[in-house]
Amino acid sequence: MITCKKCGRANEDHYRFCLGCGARLADQQEKKATVVEDPAVRVSSTNIPIPERICSNCRSVVPESFTFCGKCGTRYITPEPAEPGSGPALAVLVSIQPDGSEGERFEMAQGAFEIGRSAPEPFAGDPFLSPSHARFTVDAEGDVTVEDLGSINGVFIRVVDEVELGHGAQIRIGQELLQFHHLSELEPLLDSPDDTRVLGSPDIRAWGRVERVVGPGLSSHAYLLDKPEVLIGRETGDITFSEDGFVSGRHAQLMHTAGKSYLKDLNSSNGTYIRLTAPRRLREGDLLLLGQQVVRLSAA
């Protein structure tokens, strides 16, 4: 264990930041505190479950009692409960059915409106939604902002024009969850302290990598992006998902130019979605994917 010099909290050896105050622990690892437990008062973690959440920055598991992520140091701020707005409706969220028809309509007045498993149907029946998943805030002018409330599976917005991809960006195409990595952002294999060269595969000059995510921290396939334009589709392309009926024949394209990477939808039937990493002001007609639910923002 490492005891933080700033606040005195004990942290696991592999943590780089203090869970109590967020201080960097890199300079404190040589002095480790020994924690002595009294067997008479020791509580088994199998008897009392510890509530957890997912870090919004690095996606590590963080116990709810901790203020900071032990891996990246991100501070977690517990969102205040939203109070439903009152007054005339200024915007409407429309639930889109699997066949493309409109379902339930949720009118929003000035104020805040939350969606999650605790909301009415169809959201209550979606196991991929967190209890409090996303918050929609409507201002006096009727402008709407959406914010992810630290949900497990995120809030995705449909790509209309091509968008720039950041390192770690998550993409949903059909039923596929993909994660993009800039290879230039990955940590290189450095030589060891005794000057021994670290063995690694030859550099093939790829500009990026896409992983097919199957669970937290798990991927089933990795695709290297070594051409300026990489096509994704069901029937044709450099990356294909032949078993996914929700993926169009030519669905989306990944591009790299002038040191930047982009994602473009190719007029696919079901759209290409990218995960939001910050609150986003919406435009009328924007489509959002939350869990397995698609909603569209419309004027009141």
Provide keyphrases for this structure.
300 residues, mainly beta, Tumour Suppressor Smad4, 10-stranded antiparallel sheet, 5-stranded mixed sheet, 23 strands, globular
Description:
This protein is an all-beta fold and 300 residues long. It folds into 3 domains: 51-79, no CATH class; 89-154 and 277-299, Tumour Suppressor Smad4 (Sandwich); 161-187 and 205-275, Tumour Suppressor Smad4 (Sandwich). It is 0% helix and 36% strand. It is built from no helices and 23 strands. It has strands at residues 2-3, 10-11, 52-54, 61-63, 91-96, 102-108, 111-115, 134-138, 144-148, 155-158, 163-164, 170-173, 176-182, 208-215, 218-225, 229-233, 239-240, 252-257, 260-265, 272-275, 280-281, 287-290, 293-299. The strands form 5 sheets. It has a 10-stranded antiparallel sheet with strand order 6-5-23-22-10-20-12-13-14-15, with no helix packed on it. A 5-stranded mixed sheet has the order 11-19-18-16-17, with no helix packed on it. A 4-stranded antiparallel sheet has the order 7-8-9-21, with no helix packed on it. Strand 5 (91-96) and strand 6 form a beta hairpin. The radius of gyration is 23 Å and the shape is globular. Mean pLDDT is 81; it is low at 30-50 and 77-82.
Secondary-structure topology with pairs:
Blueprint: E1 2-3, E2 10-11, E3 52-54, E4 61-63, E5 91-96, E6 102-108, E7 111-115, E8 134-138, E9 144-148, E10 155-158, E11 163-164, E12 170-173, E13 176-182, E14 208-215, E15 218-225, E16 229-233, E17 239-240, E18 252-257, E19 260-265, E20 272-275, E21 280-281, E22 287-290, E23 293-299
Parallel strand pairs: 16-17
Antiparallel strand pairs: 1-2, 3-4, 5-6, 5-23, 7-8, 8-9, 9-21, 10-20, 10-22, 11-19, 12-13, 12-20, 13-14, 14-15, 16-18, 18-19, 22-23
